[in-house]
Structure formats: structure tokens, C-alpha cells
Amino acid sequence: MNMCEAIKAKRKNLGLTQKDFADALGMGRNGDRTLRRWENGESTPSVLEYKTIIQFAEKTPFEGNNETPEFKFIDLFAGIGGIRIPFQELGGKCVFTSEWDKFAQKTYRVNFGEEPAGDITQIEACDIPDFDILLGGFPCQPFSQAGLKKGFSDTRGTLFFEIERILKEKKPKAFLLENVKQLKGHDKGRTLKVILEHLDALNYYVNYEVLRAGDFGVPQNRERIYIVGFNKEYYDIVDNYEFKFPIPTYEKTRLGDILEHDVDEKYTISDALWEGHQRRKQEHKKKGNGFGYSLFNADSEYTNTISARYYKDGSEILIEQGIGENPRKLTPRECARLQGFPEKFIITVSDTQAYKQFGNSVAVPVIRAVAKRMREEMKTLPIKE
Question: Which CATH superfamily groups domain 71-251+366-380?
């Protein structure tokens, strides 16, 4: 196989377009054109470039091949596996994964060595292998629509129902659910109240807490609600028992610690976009609100919350580049670091998809702290005879 055939075969084996692969390799603004020329034999990469391409994603960094796990878990609404990583680190084995987005599935496959099952609504609970812990960063949905026909307390038609039916069928020892902070006040608190009522009806002890990523060592002001449950049919849980969430580390954070030094010019926003950002900010200012772009630099303690819409214009987190220079967006690797993903995590999609994936994901260090506390409790809680 010659060089151009090998490059093309490598890309196709990963299931990537030329644009995806060029972005994943960090090839710059016109990287896809360069890659196309290499594949067509019109030009040739250097020895170092060729080696980088052929070695890309050769190893699966988070392959879950533990044959004697301490516990088993499932990863629902898995995204790119941010919740899975800490539980695997603690000696757990993932026995089932579900994620419907095809781009997230690609990233998951390259990092964990397995293809997630698709739409969870199409999967029977009885077909899922037995497990000890259910993990799920499920989307927040209003229950009011279902309530119009079925009574407010019915969860059918929402994705929480999928978690509920699996808990009911499989009765795992514990679960961890993650959601946006707004779930707490959603529909005047009724949405969370319904969720807690349904978990209680399944005979689980439940506690929840809002935790901030910036309090656990990553420079991001990201607040999320974490809901932890233990099976009262398996554990002998006394009436006054309270699960203690992890104590924040409050270590000092600095954005410069996660920023890359040599950043391609394609991440610098255009004159037109920068002018538009400034104009909109002025318009908001006149109306008396603080909406608009937000600028940060290496000495910033933390950024705003990165969201799935970051790919659109990057307005919530723009990095200063000095006087007379337009600011830039974060690179995908910086987004990974902002969420506390390990450096060995492989990004195999276009920048656009990478922004969506990390914006939708979790702050891994917060999950790591919660997972550690859950495992401590599971080892010390008395088991019913």
C-alpha cells in the first residue's frame, strides 16, 4: 500500500470525512485541501506528518477490558463518555452504553473501543446485562406536556422515563444522574419534585446537590445538579441517613494553565464577527442588561460555562490576543481541558462537532469526586440480610 492509499485507508477506517480528519489532526484552516492532495497523490506529507497520521488513534486510551471488575455499570445518554471515565478508574466495568448521536458514537468508539447502542427508547430493559450502578446525564424535559393528558405526575414521553423503567426492571444498587442546574427550579420546582417522587416510589434513597466545576480544580463556572440514589431493597438504610456529597477542593484555578501556546489562526474570529459581537454588546448595554460576548485571558480565574452552541460564534468564551488583535475561540483540546478530560482523550471529529460534544459533556473532576464518595458509601452501607 503506498502512502496516499494508507492515508485514505486510515481515514476511512476511522469513519471520518477529510474535514473531520484534518481538524482532528490539527491541520489548520485549509487542512482538508492538503489532506485531499495527499490522498490523491498530488503532493506528499513529510515523514513526520505521515507518521503522525498513521499513528493517530492507534491505541484505545480507555478500553474497558477489566475481567475482574469491582462493580459493573451502564452509561446512558453517554455522550462522549465523561461520566464513564471516573467509574472505570475506580475499577468498574461498563457493560452497556447508549448514545443516539452518530458523531458522539464515533468519539466514544475511538476512546473506549466499543460502539454504543443507539436510541434508548428502542431498547428493552430486559436486554441490558445486569449491573450495579446506572449512570445517566439525561436531558431536561418538561413534564407538563404529558401532564395535559395523563396527569402531571406521569413521566411517559420524557427521557427520564427511560431511566425509570430500567431502574424498575434491573434494580441496581445505585445510580448517578446529572443535569443542568436549572432542573432545580424548572416549572417552579415541579419537574424535580416529580423525578424525586418516582425514584422514591422505586424504593431508592435519593439525595441531590448542585456542584460547581470551578470548585473542583477546572477553570470553568459550570454548575450542575447531581442526583445520587441507593437501593433500599439491597442496603439497610436507616431513616436519618444522609449521603454526603464531596467537599469541594477549592484549589486555585487559572485559565492560562489549560491554554495552548501555538494556536492556529483559524480560531481567531473574523473582523465581521468581532464587529457584530461588539455591536450586540452595546445594544444590550443600552437596554441595561449584561448580555453579549465575554472576554477572558490567561490570568482569568475561570470562564463562563461552555455550551453545545459554542460552535456558532464562541461568544460566551473568547480569549484575548493582545492589542489590535481580534480575540479567538478555544480550541477543541482546550475545551476538553476546560471539562477536565484527560490529555489522552482522542478528538476524532470536526471542530464543530467537538465543540458540541464537550459543551454537552460533564466536568470530569466533579464526577470523579462524586464517584469516589458513592463507592465509599457502597462499601460501608450495611447490606440487608
Answer: Vaccinia Virus protein VP39 (3.40.50.150)
